[in-house]
Each structure stands twice: as C-alpha cells, then as structure tokens.
Amino acid sequence: MAELRTLPGDLADAVARYMVATGVEEDPERAYQYAVAARGLAARVGIVRETTAIAAYQAGRWADALTEFRAARRLTGRNSYLPLMADCERALGRLDRALDIVTGPEARSADRATQIELRIVESGIRRDQDLPAAAVVALQVPELTDKRGRGGRARLYYAYADALLDADRGEEAREWFGKAAAADSADETDAAERVEELDAVLFEDLDDAWDDPDDADGADPDDEADLSDAATAELDDEDEAELEAADDEADLADGRPADEPPADGRPADEPPADGRPADEPPADEPPADGRPADGGHG
C-alpha cells in the first residue's frame, strides 16, 4: 500500500484498516461497505478506487464496479482493468459495449496476460449471443497448446473447457477441465469438481447402457425364439395343407369324390386286381366319349 504514503499518517492508517477489513470480510456486501468507507477518506488514491471496484464486482454491483474501475484506470493508467470492465458491461447486458472494450485499441496495446483475460471475456460474450462455436474459437490462442508456462493458465484452460461443454463437446471439455485442475495450484477454479461431475454423468450413461439388454437391432432374444417357433408351426401347417390338396387332386382324377373309396372296394391306395395301372380303365369298358372300345365310329 505504498500509495497511501501520500496521505497524512493518521488518515493513511484509517484507510489501511478499512482496506484490510475489505480483504478479510467474507460477506461481499459488507466488504463493499468497508471499501466505500475507505474511498470516502481517500477518493483520489488509485489503489483505494481499485479496491472499491473489486469489492463492488465481487458483490455483483456491476454498475458501481464499472464506475470504480474507470476511476482507477484514470488515476493509475493501467490497462489491466479492461477485462473486468468488459465483464461488467457484459453482466449489464450491454454486449456491444463489452465487445468494444475487448477489441479496442487499448486492448491491443495491453500486455499478453491482459489480452488473454480479454479473450476469456469475449468467449463469454459469444456464448451470451448463442454462438458456441465462436466462443470456442475466441480462446484458441497459442498459449492454449504451448507446453511452457502452463502453471499460470488454469483460467484459460477452464474457460476453454466451459466453451467446449456449451458447444456439446463433452469429452473434450472433460479433458480440458482436467488440464485446468492440474494447472490450478492456487485453487482459482472449481475445475476438479467439474471433472467429477462429468465423470458421474459418464458413469450414469454407462449404467443406462448396461441396463438395456436388447441387442443392436432392438430385438429381445426371447421374442426371437417365440417368433421362430411360430414360423416353424406355420410352415408345418402349410406342408400338411399341400399334402391334403395333392390327395384331393388324385381322387378327382379317379372320377370319384375326394372322400369316396374306389368302387371295387379296395383301399384307395391299392392297385386294381387285374394288374393294370390305377389310372387305366378296364379293357371291356367303353371309352368316356361313347365310341366302341375298338376305335370305330358310329
């Protein structure tokens, strides 16, 4: 708090106490009130306005936070506030203004760490615009795959995983949440918990798959057996009907009804006693057309 040295001793001590209270207070609203008290004593000190801005941001007071960040930037000249300013505009629903901050000349002249933070905000804006693919692309910066310096990129990995999940790319999202958890030595994110959540969803899907015993075509083995038995019985009935029909045709060719035995009293399947074939008329029986058996014409 070197900037407080510009204040008289007693005033500097009072401001410092309020700022410490802001930092240790767990309730965001009470922390913001402590910061407001410090601002009331030293409104023209950059670190005081920055502390008030961050406290307002954490309390969800987006308009107040934006005002304080602007004041802090005027007093300090720092571009590191730009991502938080853009995020406040986004939270207020002013997406066009948020994009102006992200793509403006000040953003282009900011240091690389600030530019990456601006990309994270831009990804969130694209998701708010219902453009999940653009949200993923916004974060595809060289640092995403650069193996050097991964220890400080937990927020980038986390934001990328979140964008992938929003784009229905769950398996990739799980991988990047895992990378974020490995890189998050300062516990800035809940990446480890997100990995566990996705794993739980995966296990539930596997359980559902094992609970369904149907094979690939959706047929139940018992149903297939029943259908096979029914088909076999149907084929047996058809074969029997065909055999009966053949017997009826043979009886009709013999000149008698299908259910009447031969006139000579023999069984239906026994040949005539004179040794002729079953379908040949006796020698002394006139032909069916009424002419003599010797072939003459009347």
Can you give keywords for this protein?
298 residues; mainly alpha; Serine Threonine Protein Phosphatase 5, Tetratricopeptide repeat; 13 helices; 62% helix; disordered C terminus
Largest sheet: none
Outline type: globular
CATH C-level class of the domain at 1-78 is Mainly Alpha
Helix content: 55-70%
Second CATH tier, the architecture of the domain at 1-78:
Alpha Horseshoe
N- to C-terminal distance: 146 Å
Total helical segments: 13
The topology string of helices and strands comes to: HHHHHHHHHHHHH
**Strand percent estimate:** under 5%
CATH topology of the domain at 1-78: Serine Threonine Protein Phosphatase 5, Tetratricopeptide repeat
Overall pLDDT confidence: 80
Class from helix and strand fractions:
mainly alpha
Low-confidence stretches: 290-298
Element layout with pairings:
Blueprint: H1 9-24, H2 28-41, H3 46-58, H4 62-76, H5 82-91, H6 95-103, H7 105-108, H8 112-128, H9 132-138, H10 154-166, H11 170-183, H12 191-211, H13 221-253
Helix pairs in contact: 1-2, 2-3, 3-4, 4-5, 5-6, 5-8, 6-8, 8-9, 8-10, 9-10, 10-11, 11-12
Your description of this structure?
With 298 residues, this protein is mainly α. It has a domain of 78 residues: Serine Threonine Protein Phosphatase 5, Tetratricopeptide repeat, CATH 1.25.40. Helix content is 62%, strand content 0%. Helix 8 packs parallel to helix 10. The longest helix is centred in the last third of the chain and has 33 residues. It is globular, with a radius of gyration of 47 Å. The C terminus is likely disordered.
